[in-house]
Write a structure and sequence with these properties.
By secondary structure, this protein is α/β, with parallel strands linked by helices. It contains 14 helices and 12 strands. It has 3 domains: 125 residues, Gyrase A, domain 2 (2-Layer Sandwich); 115 residues, Four Helix Bundle (Hemerythrin (Met), subunit A) (Up-down Bundle); 154 residues, P-loop containing nucleotide triphosphate hydrolases (Rossmann fold). Helix content is 43%, strand content 18%.
Amino acid sequence: MNTLSSFSSDSTIFALATASGRGAVAIMRISGALTLQILEKLCDTMPMPRQASVRRLWKRGSEGDELLDQALVIWFPGPKSYTGEDSAELHLHAGPAVIDAVAEALAFYGARPAQAGEFTKRAFINGQVDLLQAEGISDLVEAETQAQRKQALEQTEGGLSIVYREWANKLREVLAYQEALIDFPDEDLPEEVERNLKNTIAVLHQEMNDHLNDAGRGERLRRGLVFAILGAPNAGKSSLLNLLVDRDAAIVTEQAGTTRDAIEVRVVLGDVPVTLVDTAGLRETQDVIEAEGIRRAQKIGQEADCVLCLTDASVDIKEPEVRCDFWIRTKIDLNVSRETFVAKDIKTLLISVKTGEGIADLKRVLAERARYLTTHQGPPPLTRIRHRLGIMECVQHLEEAKRVEWPELRGEELRLAMQSLGRLTGSVGVEDLLDTIFSQFCIGK
């Protein structure tokens, strides 16, 4: 359970948990100490706990009673609720006037509008979820694809938390043995005590390094991939982008240098969100604006998860001068040589945007690459840079613990390693992180 008492609040909060705009139903959430009192004022009679009941909602004041709506009401007495506090849901008719009237009544009865992520923050503070699970909930709300949903749900269900808790338990056991060696130096403790201690440190160190060496697959899936389209002017980059996204996202003309700035379009390839980036044509130029576009194109190519290098098939074949993951020869409908180019294990594809030849194969290859860059096996992957930095810090302390011989110094490094893990789950030292983490949530979650 969490013990962040300094973050507890006596206020009662409310927020719309469904998207704004016209719809059939809008869900208003309430949480806090005044929830029961508010429901008793809102409803004709109190609903049974955790049973959906139809009730008329009222604003009762000195000027008389005003009927607000007829709604489905669910009452969740704490601690068996999402936040661990007394909570409720009001399933309202979704007209803006109804929502505004109910919100005004809740404020009249003593509640206040919730801040971004405040419901989940309270769930964390009250020990309903740890920090990793809370971040998983945020990712689940934002998930665009089934692959993202599965990864976020695994984290929400405690997949990462279980791994880190197991490491923390092993560290705690190792630290206990280390303290025994410090406190009883004159006792004839078995030699295998220190040997087992060092072996366990080495195993933990290796397991955490393996966890870090995942090629960033979890982080890539969470944020989505970037595929850059590079090549000379008029190689067909903008035409290919338009075809892949099935709309006219980029201007296409016969004039070289039409695209001067990066054009980004989000698509789904292989159940993975991918941002396709059309870039300025690479060539020597005296035009200051075009030169800046080329500089940006080169930078995008260096940072992208995958680079598609395009060249007109009528141009002499030569090795690409920039980073290249797929070599794509375009305009093969123009009766040109279909000789494939092989260099540095780069896969070569022949396509025609005009006739569609090779496009299905290209889409298949790109989907396979997207899946390859994000699919993981084994334990749940790291999904945020915060996780990666925390494990890296833990690994550094374990490396020091392996290196030093003085028991006191080794014990201190083990304690620091435990603190690094504790900050990941939120069990220690995360007060300064909470506002940053939960401010990224949507209102009502």
